[in-house]
Amino acid sequence: MSSMYESISRKVDELRNEIINTLTHLISIPAVNPSYGGEGELEKANALLEIIRGWPFDEVKRIDAPDRRAKGGVRPNILAIYRGKDESAGKLWIVTHLDVVPPGDLSAWTVTKPFEPKIVGDKIYGRGTEDNGQSLVASLYAVKALMELGIRPRRTVVLAFVSDEEAGSDYGIKYLMSKHPELFDKKDQALVPDAGNSDGSFIEVAEKSILWLKFKVYGKQTHGSTPHKGLNAHEVAITLANLLKNLLITKYSIRDALYEPPESTFEITMVSGTATSPNIVPGYHEFVMDSRVLPQYSLDEVLRDIGNAINLVKAMYHRKIENEEVPRIEVETIQRLDAPKPTPTDAEIVKALVKVLRETRGIEPKIGGIGGGTFAAYFRMLEIPAVVWSTIDEVAHQPNEYTKITNLINDTKTIATLITTI
């Protein structure tokens, strides 16, 4: 174990209480994404700016994306910059997000209320503790530890605290990349501590393509006693859903051991309809399918197959009722992300993180891919090598979400050491 790590470890231990207090304070401020009915990230961003006021960052920028749905009409993105010794080396981005998902069923929160963080043993409970509070605070105090030790890294470090990760990042990292492309360079590297596993051994370098589709099926409503006078939209939708599931998992069946799970997945996740009584044959039904597709496949081909399946179901059920052709089936794309090329396993960020985990935590890392959905994909689209890593129990979005203090402190030490290594 290096003397550098020992110095960092001692300093982080000295900051332990401050680290815990900062996390509990930030978690107490709701930052529910406006796409899910919340006010957004403004209050949390202001609290974070107040916390770091006076810290010796070389520059702190706040870049707001306009959004009328959010409190203050903006979605804030904060960049806290700690300059390195070699300006030609490129930057190290460490990207975490301010927004959280809604609490869900409040009765399921049995330890504490979602935004009243509570410490029980080694765990801090509250909405956003794991996703993404732990890593936000760990990255923040990793840099503070280096500041207090008087250590300047080789690369400039950019701590990016961004909005809108939970709903597609249009007001967050994607906004920064589209409106401020000058911030990014192919010499940069990126750490995205927004997924991981319980022992910190998993380094994600690849993600599947994401395709979220909403299927809107229109039949003809009628009374339950006269089904011949209408067309049951539920029945049509169920037929379509089953056909899609069987067709897609059969055709797109390649397995790639880099990913967990190793195959493409097509899951029906949400359903709704208009029937409000047992004796109504519904005239409308909608469902959502969440597809995670291996990058070996084209999403355009998937969409063509879906279109063919829709045409087949329409032909199966076609009829004319009161001069109206039914069924009608519409498809809305909720989210589409075509997977970029994986981060090469010999990229500097990968090699540095592997080295740090082996030498400081005795971990033999596993390098692989996931179903998709982190900031890393956007960096890879810019040909910036990115890894996703953290030590978490994977309780994000669940009631009684928590983070372990042990993980919070150890990840702070790991991130600080990584900054000095890369």
Automatic annotation (TrEMBL):
Superkingdom, natural source: Archaea
Keywords for this protein: Cobalt, Hydrolase, Metal-binding, Zinc
Cofactor(s) named in the record: Co(2+); Zn(2+)
Pfam families attached to this UniProt entry: M20_dimer (PF07687), Peptidase_M20 (PF01546)
Domain annotation Peptidase M20 dimerisation: ranges: 205-311
Molecular function via GO: hydrolase activity; metal ion binding
InterPro entries, per database record: ArgE/DapE, Bact_exopeptidase_dim_dom, Peptidase_M20, Peptidase_M20_dimer, Peptidase_M20A
Similarity-based family: Belongs to the peptidase M20A family.
PANTHER family recorded: ACETYLORNITHINE DEACETYLASE, ARGE_DAPE-RELATED DEACYLASE
Protein name: Succinyl-diaminopimelate desuccinylase
